[in-house]
Amino acid sequence: MDVLKAIRTRISESQLTGEVDDATIAKLIQEAAIWAPNHHHTEPWHFMVLKGKARERVGLAWAEASAREIPVDGAAREKYISKESQKLLRAPVIIIVSQRVSGGPVQVEEDHAAVSAAVQNLLLAAHGMGLGTRWRTGKMAYHPEMAKILDLPEDLKIIAFVYLGQPTLTDTSDRHRNLDGVIEWKVE
Ligand SMILES: Cc1cc2nc3c(=O)[nH]c(=O)nc-3n(C[C@H](O)[C@H](O)[C@H](O)COP(=O)(O)O)c2cc1C
User: Fold this and answer.
1) Using CA positions, which residue lies closest to atom 21 of ligand 1?
2) What pTM was estimated for this model as a whole?
3) Could you give the strand order of the β-sheet that contains 132-136, starting from the edge strand earlier in sequence?
4) Helix H segments across the chain?
5) CATH class of the domain at 3-52+90-165
6) Is 104 in the pocket of ligand 1 (CB under 6 A)?
7) If pLDDT is split at 50, 70 and 90, which confidence band does 17 have?
8) Residue 98's pLDDT is what?
9) What is the DSSP string of 17-61?
10) 11 CA from centroid of ligand 1 (Å)
11) For ligand 1, what atom is nearest to the CA of residue 134?
């Protein structure tokens, strides 16, 4: 697919279905994500793939941890856990993309930019291969309990939960961006 067309027609999917084989997942990471621009070649990225029952296990552990922090018990707690634990089941594959945080503040910021670029490479490559994605973060990504559940080393910071699967949205024409004031030209 032409690059501009891929950029323009990629869309954040809410519900992803089907399966994605391991070779395709590896290809998205090895042939797209890690080719992002990266100042000083620090290669600050880390990819964890959650599939199958791992999504259920992590989802349930997260839901229970999250429920401990809010004032619910009894049936309401069970309902909350049941709903929260479904979140990772919205796609057959979740790629958790993290930044290895090291160096001074400039490196940290630039590495964050590089990992974000890696995520976008991944989203676009997946779209070009006919797959659907959604970049998600939210409480799940930033809560220290999630890092523990995933056994992530302390120097890894989650940048994205990339939900990946077969797309369900076909019409991407209603995506909208405001063009007013986006470009400031200076010619003299
Ligand atoms: C850093 C970042 C965090 C995001 N977190 C979430 C999220 O937690 N939940 C969600 O539904 N979408 C999330 N998104 C997706 C955006 O909501 C989505 O890209 C936006 O609505 C524009 O839609 P489009 O990607 O289809 O153009 C995130 C995107 C970025 C870049």
Assistant:
1) 12
2) 0.95
3) 45-51, 93-100, 156-165, 132-136
4) 3-9, 22-31, 52-67, 74-85, 105-128, 138-142, 144-150
5) alpha beta
6) no
7) very high
8) 98
9) BS---HHHHHHHHHHTGGGS--GGG---EEEEEEEHHHHHHHHHH
10) 9
11) 15
Boundaries of every domain in the chain? 3-52+90-165
Mean pLDDT of 146-162: 97
Distance separating alpha carbons of residues 150 and 51, to the nearest angstrom: 13
Report whether pLDDT(94) > 90: yes
Q: Is the CB of 30 under 6 A from ligand 1?
A: no
**Is the distance from CB of 149 to CB of 61 less than 8 angstroms?**
yes
Q: How confident is the model at residue 176 (pLDDT cuts 50, 70, 90)?
A: confident
When computed from its CA atoms, the radius of gyration of the chain, rounded to whole angstroms, is: 18
User: Quick one: which atom of ligand 1 is closest to the CA of 159?
Assistant: 1
User: How remote is the CA of residue 76 from the centroid of ligand 1, in Å?
Assistant: 29
Per-residue model confidence as pLDDT tens digits over 112-151: 999 999 999 999 999 999 999 999 999 999 999 999 999 9
Tokens 């950029």 label which residue?
A: 7
